[in-house]
Amino acid sequence: MRHILHADFDAFYTSVEQLDDPSLRGKPVVVGGSPEGRGVVAAASYEARRFGVRSAMPMRTALQRCRNLIRVPAKFERYNDVSRRVMGIFSEITPLVEPLSLDEAFLDVTDTVTPKRQAVDIARELKQRVREELSLTISVGVASGKSVAKIASDLDKPDGLTVVPPGAEREFLAPLPVDRLWGVGPKTAARLRSYGVETIGELASRSESWFRDWFGRTGPHMRLLALGEDDRAVVVRRDRKSVSAETTLPRDTDDPEALRELVNRLSQRVAASLVRREWTGRTVKLKLRLADFTTFTRQKTVPERVQSSEDVARVAALLLAIEVQPGRLFRLVGVGVSGFEEPVPEKDVLQPRLAGFE
Ligand code: TTP
Ligand code: MG
Ligand code: MG
Prior knowledge:
This protein is of the alpha+beta class and about 350 residues long. The protein has 3 domains: about 170 residues, Alpha-Beta Plaits (2-Layer Sandwich); about 55 residues, DNA polymerase, domain 1 (Orthogonal Bundle), CATH 1.10.150.20; about 100 residues, Dna Ligase, domain 1 (2-Layer Sandwich), CATH 3.30.1490. It is built from 14 helices and 12 strands. A 5-stranded mixed β-sheet has the order 5-6-1-7-8. The protein has a 4-stranded antiparallel β-sheet with strand order 9-12-10-11. Strands 3-2-4 form a 3-stranded mixed β-sheet. Strand 2 and strand 3 form a beta hairpin. Helix 10 crosses helix 11 and helix 12 packs antiparallel against helix 13. The two termini are about 30 Å apart. The site of thymidine-5'-triphosphate (TTP) has 14 residues, from strand 1, helix 1 and strand 3.
């Protein structure tokens, strides 16, 4: 019996914008491109959704549906930063975290569960920590497999918590429309409807041969998902090539002390991330941006593997010392580590990607 959590931010981009700018709170807000430039809606706040505004909708249509809609351009660096922080919180709960996108991840908490701390308690903890540390809300689904957990997290948004007890998967899925199934997009859903299948329950009641006849090789997989059976593992991807942190200085500076201090702080952040992942690296990289926006990197590969903030900072400081000169003003400093030695177990490599049906 496994316990899988799926956690997903509510209205991610717009919630971050409403957090950063209190004047946007409680209002219909979208993040996306301008209507003149044929932009589309990336994210819509729940207030905007009341007017029928949705992700992927042309901005022009969105503005027609809601005349008071406030449009904000995307700040991807900021979303990336929030994403890294939430993934950090997740990986403090369990190392078995599989990010699916910037705003969502699966967590396998099977080995974290104790009689006193059930999966639902962990889900509540997770929500509370995200609320306290990031001032944002996530919705969480709890189930015995990934597919049902993902569907569950979406059912009670925003700020939702949906638990599907073991054994209740099929019953939980039955009334839902087929396009809720993970991997069933609009095309497959339309095809299923043309066969008279509207709900997941109707789909689940079809015979094995029906699935094979209509969906060939993907048929058996679709059938299992409709039955709420999904034994795919939560896969920790170790394909990240580097871990880094950077900051723009409040004021451009050539002060060696201030720069050194900043390198130390950034090294601490990078090291914390390395320690959390149990990674060690070989190459330390320093990124520098001058007052005139010229940006360059310097890197050094060392014989001993680095992980601690002292080691990262020592190498980064060496690189920095070469570049610091009186009158040479720096605007941004970044520290990164790469060259990880982390053998990927065979079974992870062979784990099939989450295949859709179209
Ligand atoms: P989602 O998690 O799909 O949506 P959401 O977080 O905005 O809202 P929900 O409460 O329903 O989860 O996507 C996360 C972010 O990804 C979203 O805030 C913006 C971006 N995104 C796009 O840029 N284009 C899209 O078509 C979608 C669906 C999302
Ligand atoms: Mg989301
Ligand atoms: Mg999402």
